[in-house]
Structures are given as structure tokens and as C-alpha cells.
Amino acid sequence: MSGMYGRPSAGAEAPAPPPRNGRSRTLIITAAVMVVLFLSLTTFASFWTERLWFKAAGYSSVFGTLLWTRIGLFLVFGAVMAAVVALNLALAYRMRPLLGGGGDVNLARYRDAVSPATGWILGGVSALMGAFAGASAAGQWREFSLWRNSTPFGHSDPYFERDASFYVFELPWWHYLVDFAMALAVVGLMASLLVHYLYGGIRLSVARDRLSGAAQVHISALLGVFVLAKAADYWLDRFDLVTGSGSLFTGMGYTDDKAVLPAKEILTGIALICAVLFFLNIWRRTWLLPTMGIALLALSAVILGLIVPGTVQQFQVSPNVPDREGPYIGRNIDATRMAYNLDAVEETSYSSDPSVAGGELGALDEATAKVPVVDPKVVSQTFEQQQQVRAYYSVPPVLDVDRYEIDGRDRALVLGVRELDQSGLADSDKNWFNQHVVYTHGNGVIAAYGNQRADEDDEQSQSIQWAEGQEDSESDLTELSEGGYESRVYFGELSPSYSVVGQRGDEPAVELDLPKGERDDENQTTTYDGKGGVPIGSAIDKLLYAVKFGEPNLVLSGRVHEDSKILYDRNPRRMVEKVAPWLTVDSDPYPAVIDGRIQWILDGYTVTDQFPLSQRESLDEMTEDSLADPPGFQTLPTDEINYMRNAVKATVDAYDGTVTLYAWDEEDPILKAWSEVFPGVVQPKSEIPETLMEHVRYPDDLFKVQRHQFARYHLTEPGDWYDGANRWEVPEDPQDPTTQQPPYRLFVDDTWALTSVYVPRGKNNLASFMSVNSDATSEDYGKISVLELPNERTAGPGQIANELSSDDGVREELLGYTQGGVTPIYGNLLTLPVGEGLMYVQPVYTQRSADTEASFPILRFVLVSYGGRIGIGETLREAIADVLGVDASDPTPEPEPERPGRGDEDPPTQPQGSVDDQIRDLLDQAEAKFEAADQAQANGNTVGWARLMEEGRELITEAVELAAQ
User: Fold this and answer.
1) Helix, coil or strand: residue 369
2) What pLDDT shows up at residue 854?
3) Pick from 589, 494, 578: which is nearest to 53 by CA?
4) Residue 701 and residue 603 in contact, taking contact as beta carbons nearer than 8 Å
5) Within the chain, which residues score under 70 in pLDDT?
């Protein structure tokens, strides 16, 4: 009967097991080996090609330091973890009861299964835990390196009187060591509990004596180590109070000082007592006292760590915050201003009372002669359409602004690098050979005069005046470098993922270059011969790079030969972050033509979130505005910082990729520490060439962070800071209200500066004007000045932008250009102190709205708001003259106070003499007007032509009326 239910009956033969398929087993083993080999090859290819990149860049020492530091940490901490786990497993096994685990059949079955492989299991588990611990420790190379090379700041906190270096360099590493000790105890405890349970040292099924004496000793010792480490953790937590973020500010507050700090000290003492009780349990063999100790520790943690601080905050601090928190706020203000270099800001009370007399035209024109009216964001499309030459060249969506000394004068230029953009290739041309061998680089710099002026005596034009990039440029950057400059751009922000370059013997060059001469010339070819790039001639290198990029053509193609090099990781920001992984790099690398080469200039920052008492904020949020790029490569362990220094200036050669780092803030302790970690990587400041110094500027991201913090920390009295009545904020961008207005680079009082404005929080009127000296050749470089407008109702950027766009005179002038599918585009709204007041300047562009790629913005007018008046003109001088109500052609016009607002033009000269003489004079004046109109039309000055024609007709009408009389 039993056979009916699937069990063989007594005496029946059991069915033979199915034969094993040897082929299937072989396939499985083969597949597993192949997977392991592939993963190993991929890992090795990534490691080895990274080493080759650093070697080619000349920074093998950085790679070596990083490698050996990580390996050392991995081995040391991995070995300690593995040893601790192995020791606890071995001790638990040796301490097993001699009579086994009792009658538990299941446990006996498991013991029988693991006994033959006990050694392998012990070694495997220990190695696995060691690998995890080693990988975690290798990620702590920054904390370890700074701890070993700690450098004093010379600034101590007022609570523990420890130098800031303790918090920045030492405390993070001590925290990791304590956490690691607790992890050792926990992992060792878990391993020992498992073995004790498996071999009968722990029996849960009995009513008493559930732990053997040996197990109790073992577990007590491990728990004692854990609680001892927890006591050290409580002790270190005390120091975190000066860097912790509270609801009101960063740092020690009243509740922290009066409740949390004593609680941490008390909990440290209780934890020490508990640790002693666990160690005593090794001899006393009773769990009563350790259990009571742990219960006391847990209860104290709840009462002292939660209830008491909450009570103090609710009943002592909240009803009287200014008095309770005042001293602590004051210390936060002092530390924040120091950490962000705000303690040297020069604040000046400023009353905006501009003169709008006509006689001021000459002075105002001279003061604004260098003001850029070309918007680097709007004209990017114009650069694309007029200067890209080929569809596969492109410029950034936001151009850069730099200054050059041309013809003995500092000139503001809007410029961008003509980079290779492979998205412009036709789909049929997008193949491996074209994308990685033929189209390899960009070519040249495109530049236009930011203030639209060529020579002072030239007639102003409504179109962009090119300084570089086309044959008929008024002044080329090539003239600044004897013999021109190397225009090929192999390293840039838009460079391909990788390119294979190099020419073998007499083979023809295949890399496509910018056509020379006329634009319809045949394509030119070139060959890269720079020192940068990794040689890829050997079969091994080809294979490794084929694995790295997943491209078999690197092995199979005949274009990859013994003279070939491969260029990759070519973004300047990425390159600097690789050779200096401890730097946070500014989001805006900018190009400059220096000594015959295009150099990318980058700013590197040393940052931390551990500076005591300084306000911690998100770096991304502080630097966000309408021109900011999305977050790029991230080197910070956290996005929040509370200390920032522009420690390094870096350059990347656009042709051969040479990366050079120069110390800038040589007194920065963090830079000093990293210079000890990576000796020789950063060159001294004295090595910066003068030609480079002329283009070094104050960095954008640092200024954005400083203006963000100064909006609140210009208030130095705790009471004023707390009530926030005079708190400022960066205004919204009038052209993009979803983000903040960006800072602008321009000349302020003939000083190259980076500027911004503030409005009161929640309001639109202007509160202050902020600028920083951006001229690295000046002794005042980095000096921040703030012009504060106390109790003024000066209109802010948003209000001015609304007034400019809705002004009847402006709308009337634009009417002739905004018909037939043409759209006006308002450019950046600049604010600058001129004369006795603040002037707003805004360019206006027009662009055809039709769906055509050839459409691009054309600069038509400049708008000016000054002294409550609005002016418009084709040039800034004409717009200022319109504000003053004078003729822009008169260099020293007489004021006309009787004409309010936007008045008419100057009346014609009254003729003298007889009637015939008067008629003749009027006709002569009319003829002069018509000749001037013809000249204006020839110059493209349509508005001036219409005005002069109307004046001429008025003169003829007057002459006719006089003849009729």
C-alpha cells in the first residue's frame, strides 16, 4: 500500500538517480570562469588606463599617493577586522561545551555539515568582513591624509578653546576610528553568538543556565568593548556641538550649552560605568548589574538627550530667544564672516542723487565708455550663426567676459572657444572613424567688443564689432601674440569622449581642421603633435582601451598604429579635479589667449563643513542663478560647506592638455595640509607668469557664496541679525524670475570688477550695490565694497526692467523693429555707480521669430535709466544723451533744464540778417541735415537717419513759410 502513496514498499529497490550531465557542468564552470575573467579584465583595464592617463598628464605622483594610501588603509583596517572576526570565531569554537550542544537534532545536523569545512568557513567569513571593512576605510583617505598633515588655523573656538584644525583635520578621523571600534565589537559579537549557539554555548530551549560560563565571559568582554567605544563616541559628540546645524544657526546654542553638553558628559560617565560592569561580569558571572547599567544608560539617553533639551528649549529659550541666544548668535556671526572672508568688506553709505543736466553728457559718456552692452548669454546664438563656419563647431550657451589690453586700453571682450560639437554632424556621417579619428578638435576663439566701441572717433554701429574670429575683424587677438596663436582646441568643454590622433610616416593627415582663407575653401586637415595624450601603439594598450570604451575598432582599425595617441577625459574641469581630487573647482572655466596658446583658466577652492560655529549652507543653492550650469563633477563628500577659500588658480592648455596648478591663497591651512599630502603638485604663487596674471580674475562661485552669506551677515549685532528687519537678498533675474540675477563683470570707476546688487528681503527697491576688485594685478584685488542706500526708495532691477519695457518712448522706437514676426529680446540689466547716482543699462535685441536656423539676435538699442529718466539710443552715449535731453553728437552740450523727461532734439540755429539771408541759412542747414542723414543710413543707423531727415524737412518748411511772408 505504501507504494501507492509514492513511498517504496519494504524490500523494493529505490529508483536510481538520474545520471549527471557532465557537459552541463562543464558549461556552467566555463561560463563562471569567463564571467570572472571578464570582470577582472574590466577592472584591470579601468585601473591601468587611469594610471596611463595620470602618467601622460605628468601627475603620476598623485595617482601613486592615492593608490598606496587607499591600499594601505584597505589592508590595515581590513586585516584588523578580519583578525577580530577570526579571533572571535576561533575563541567561540574553542569555548564550545565538551559534551556538544545537547539533544537539538537540527543543530547537530548543522554542526555535522560545517565541521569538515570549519577552517574554510572561518577564513572565508573573516576575509569577507575584512574586505567590507577595508573598502570602507579606503574611502576615508581624505580624512586620514588631513589628520596626518594637520596644520593650525590660528583661530580657536570660545567653548573648548581648541584650534579650528582640531575640528577640520582631526575630529572626523577620530570619529571614524571610534565608529570602527564599535563595528569591530558588533561584528565580533554577532560572529561569536552564532558559533556559541551552533555548538551549544547558548541554549534557548532550557529554563536556566542558557549561557555556558565561557560564552558568558566572551559576550561580556565584547559588550564591554562596545560600551567603552560608545563612551568615547559620547565624548567626541561634545565637540560636534560647535559644528552642528541648529534650527536657527550653525554652532553651539543656548540649549546645546546648558543642556546637551552636560548630557553628553554625563552619558560618557554612565557608559564608562556600564563598560566596567560588563568587564566585571567576566568574574562575577551575573547579568544583573550589567543589565541595570544598560537600562540606566538607555533611560539617561532618553531623559538627558531628548526630554531635558526639549524642556529647556520650550520653556527657557523660545519665550526669550534674543536674550538667550544673543551671545551665541554673535559668535556665529564672527565665525561666519571669518570663514567666508567677509570681515574685511568695506561698507559705505551711499545716496543716489544723480544729476541729469545736459552738461553732464561728456562726463557720463567717459565714465561709461567701458560698460559692456553685449549680453554674453543672448549673443551666443549670434556667435553660432555668424562665426561657427561649419555646423560641427559650436560655442557655449553662455559666453565669457574677459579684458584685454588692445591699443593701450583695457577692453572688455565677450568671447568663446569655437569647439567641436559632433551633434552637428549629419546622421550619415556619424560613424566610428569620423567621430573618433576625423572630427577630433575645435579651432580658435571668437570674440566681440563688449562695449561695442572700436575707436573713440569711429561712428557707432548697431551690429557686433568682432575682435577675433573673422577675416575683417577690427582688431585681432592674434596681434597680441607674435606670430599668432595655436588655435587648435583638443581639450575643451565639448570635446568628444575620446579621439585617436597621430600620423604614421608619410600617410596623409585625416583630422579635419578649420578652413583657411575664404569660407568656401576646401577642407583642411591636420595632425596632432602635442605632448599630451596616451600612446596606444602596443597590442596590450589597444586591448585595454577597447575594453575600457567597449570599442573593438581600437584593436581592429589600421588607423590605430604605433604612432597613435588617445585623448580622453578632456574637459578642463574634470582634468583639474582628477589631478587635484581635494579641490572643488569653479563651475565656469574661461578661456584666454596667453603667450600664443589658448589656456583654460580655472579656480580651485578648499572647502570644509567642519569650521567651528560658521554657518553651513548648500554650495549648489548659494551659487544658483540664471547663468549657472547644472552641477557637474562632484568632489565634495557633502554639498554643504561652512568655509571656502580660493586656494588655487589652474590652467589647462587647450592644445596639449598641460595642467598647471598655482597656489593663490598661500596662507590657507587646508591648502598647506594638502600640499604636504601631494608635494610638488601645486606651484608657488611666485611662478605665475605676468601674462597669465593679466587674465586671472575673481572667481564667480566664490563671489556668489560671499554675496549669499553677506545678505544676512552684513548685520553684526545679534539682535538685528535675529529680527531680520534689515536682511537683504539677491533679486530675481528680470528676464528669468525663477532664478536669481547673476553677478556681472564690468569696469567700475575704471576698475575691472565683479558686481551684484541687493534688495530688501521680500521687497523690490534697491538696498545696496556690491562689487569686488577682479584685477589680479592690483594691490586691491579681492577687496569687496558695498554701497548701502539707507532709507532710499531707489528702484530695484525688477522695477526698472518693468519701467524700461513699458516706457512709451521705448515702445515707440521698438515698434518699427518688432513687426513681421520679429521679437524684442531684453538683455542683462547692469547696475553701476556713475556720477552721483546709480545707472541701469540694458541692451535690446531683435530676432526673427520665423522657424529658421538662420535667425539670431541683433543688437538694436541700448536702454538707460538714470535719475528717474529713461533714454534709448543705438549706442550707450545716445541713450545717455536721450536721458539728459541733449544731442549725442555735441561733445559738450549745454543743459536745458526747462525740458522735462525725454525731450525733443536741440532746436535749429536761428538765422540772422535779411530775409533772403535767413532763407539761405535755413536751406544750408537743411542740406547739412540731409547729408548727415545719408551718412547715418550708410552706417546702418536707421533711427538717426529718420531723425535727421525729419529735422531737414522742418528746416525747409520754415524756409518756405518765411518766403511766403
Assistant:
1) coil
2) 56
3) 578
4) yes
5) 1-22, 99-107, 110, 205-209, 355, 357-359, 386-389, 452-464, 467-483, 516-522, 629-638, 819-820, 849-854, 890-915, 934-947, 963-965
d(CA 570, CA 489): 10
**Predicted local distance difference test score (pLDDT) of residue 612:** 96
Q: How far is CA 317 from CA 257, 325, 326, 615, 663, in A?
A: 12, 7, 11, 20, 46
If phi > 0 it is left, if psi is from -120 to 50 it is alpha, else beta; for residue 932 that is: alpha
The total number of residues written for the chain in this structure: 965
Between the alpha carbon of residue 466 and those of residues 250, 453, 469, 472, 582, the distances in Å are 50, 10, 7, 8, 40
Can you tell me which residue has the cell 585617436?
500
Question: Which pLDDT belongs to residue 860?
Answer: 85
Element (H, E) at 918: helix 915-938
Per-residue DSSP letters for 781-838?
TT-EEEEE-TT---B-HHHHHHHHHH-HHHHHHHHTTS-SSEEEEE---EEEEETTEE
Q: Strand ranges (DSSP E) for 344-485?
A: 346-349, 393-394, 400-406, 409-417, 419-420, 442-443, 445-449, 466-468
Partners of 641 in the β-ladder: 617
CA distances from 281 to 196, 222, 286, 900 (A): 18, 11, 6, 96
| pLDDT given for residue 181 in this prediction | 96
pLDDT of 896: 39
Q: What is the pLDDT of residue 155?
A: 94
Q: What is the DSSP string of 619-683?
A: HHHHH-STTPPPP-----SSSEESEEEEEEEEEEETTT--EEEEESSTT-HHHHHHHHHSTTSEE
Of the candidates 367, 368, 352, the residue with the CA atom closest to the CA atom of residue 767:
352
**Distance in angstroms (rounded) separating the CA atoms of residues 800 and 810:** 13
Is 825:378 a contact under the CB 8 Å cutoff?
yes
* Burial state string for 551-565 with b = 16 or more CB within 10 A and e = fewer than 16: bebbeebebbbeebb
The set of long-range contacts for 156-159, using a CB threshold of 8 Å and a minimum separation of 24, is: 157/242, 157/612, 157/613, 158/331, 159/241, 159/242, 159/252, 159/257
Mean pLDDT of the chain: 84
Per residue in 738-768, pLDDT (tens digit) is 899 999 999 888 889 999 999 999 888 999 9
Residue 941 β-bridge partners: none
Distance in angstroms (rounded) separating the CA atoms of residues 373 and 357: 23
pLDDT at residue 901, rounded to an integer: 36
pLDDT of residue 456: 41
**Contact status, residue 951 vs residue 927, Cβ threshold 8 Å:** no
The span from the CA of 960 to the CA of 965, in Å, is: 9
